[in-house]
Amino acid sequence: QVQLQESGPRLVRPSETLSLTCTVSGGSTSSYYWNWIRQSPGKGLEWIAYIYHAGYTKYNPSLMSRATISMDTSKNHFSLKVNSVTAADTAVYYCARAGVRAMYSEFDYWGQGILVTVSS
Amino acid sequence: EIVMTQFPLSLPVTPGEPASISCRSSQSLLYYNGNNNLDWYVQKPGQSPQLLIYLASNRASGVPDRFTGSGSDTDFTLTISRVEPEDVGVYYCMHTVETPPTFGQGTKVEIK
């Protein structure tokens, strides 16, 4: 059974960088597309980015190049950085695996989510 | 970006009765290959979203057959044939036809 677990600081100061890692167990990051999605009261569910093991990435233009997704297949995890954060980046951040046919759809496995608060 | 609009936003239901949720997209979700690129998810209280339906009408693995997805182009429907108490939660549609994929606002299903 594939399991995903988000980890990282839960409190980030404004203008600093949010850094999260998603560790995958029961499956390999060397296949499938791996995604980050966030959920905030104000904006609902928002797709952030995906990565494929070959290094292919795609981002939501709304983050205006503040986001960077990366992967370490040797550790079977992938990561997200969002720089220059503001209160609007406060959200529950989820990592999720896209379906076998998909890049950013058919999310069949999700992490439990991690609440990140941006505050001084 | 494509805007997804769901209605109703709140849906009180009686166990054993049917329920339907509508989702409308601001642009066609019909892909050149004939697929409609729309997923449905449910987020049960305190949980992460779970995939229910993909490509508008395909049930995900393990999803009970009381859940049916239908529709095409810009108008889609999720139907629960007989609501069970464990179906309470917030239901989201999501398009995946272009970048960025976007979600609807969610429809909260609760038991009357």
Task: Write up this protein.
The complex is a heterodimer of chains A (120) and B (112). Chain A has strands at 3-7, 11-12, 18-25, 33-40, 44-52, 57-59, 67-72, 77-82, 91-97, 109-110, 114-118. In chain A, strands 2, 4, 5, 6, 9, 10 and 11 form a 7-stranded mixed β-sheet that branches. In chain A, strands 1-3-8-7 form a 4-stranded antiparallel β-sheet, with no helix packed on it. Chain A has 120 residues and is mainly β. By secondary structure, chain B is mostly beta strands. Chain B contains no helices and 11 strands. The chains are: A mainly beta (120), B mainly beta (112). The A-B interface holds A 44-47, 58, 60-62, 94, 99, 102, 104-108, 110-113 and B 1, 37, 39, 41, 48-51, 54-55, 60-61, 92, 94, 96, 99-103, 105-106.
Q: Keywords, please?
A:
heterodimer, A: 120 residues, 4-stranded antiparallel beta sheet, B: mainly beta, 48% strand, globular
